Each structure stands twice: as structure tokens, then as C-alpha cells.
Amino acid sequence: MITQPYHLYVERTDATKNMARFYAMAIEPNLFGEACLTRCWGRIGTNGQTMSHHFKTEREAVVLFLDLLRQKKRRGYSVTVRQSCPDIW
């Protein structure tokens, strides 16, 4: 069972390189009650690609979630404040 919601949406833009990327992640329970980390990435304005990782415990999913967040921050992604997450799931 997931004890709290985990949702993240970050963007990286650079007009000089024609770069406009997004990266979104969420941890939610799957049908069997296991933790599922779903991530979606691509060019802003597109559906992008999606990948899901299934874990026995929430803790394992959170470890990967935080590791991916650190990687994205190092690459220059910034958290974008939004009223709602885009419909990517």
C-alpha cells in the first residue's frame, strides 16, 4: 500500500538548442497492491514515451524515484509549478 502520493513534473528548455523536454514520474499502487513507478518523458507538446517499474515495497520505488530526480536536477531540469499534471498517464 502506498502511504503518500508521489508525483513529479520537471522541464528542461533551451531556445538556443531548440530543446523543450519534460519528464514526469508517479508512484501508485498496481492492481496487486504493489508499488508501481510510472515515468513519462519526451518533447513538450507530445505524448512522449512511458515506462513502468514494479516493486514489492514502496521503499524500493521511492529509492529509484529519488535517484531519477537527482539525475534530472544534475542535467538542468527544473520543477515547474502547475495547477494539474498533464494528462500523460
TrEMBL record:
Keyword DNA-binding: yes
Domain WGR: from-to ranges: 5-89
UniProt keyword annotation of Aminoacyl-tRNA synthetase present: no
Pfam families (alphabetical): WGR
InterPro entries: WGR_dom_sf, WGR_domain, YehF/YfeS-like_WGR
GO molecular function: DNA binding
Keywords, alphabetical: DNA-binding
Domain of life: Bacteria
Protein name stated in the entry: Predicted DNA-binding WGR domain protein
Organism: Rhizobium subbaraonis
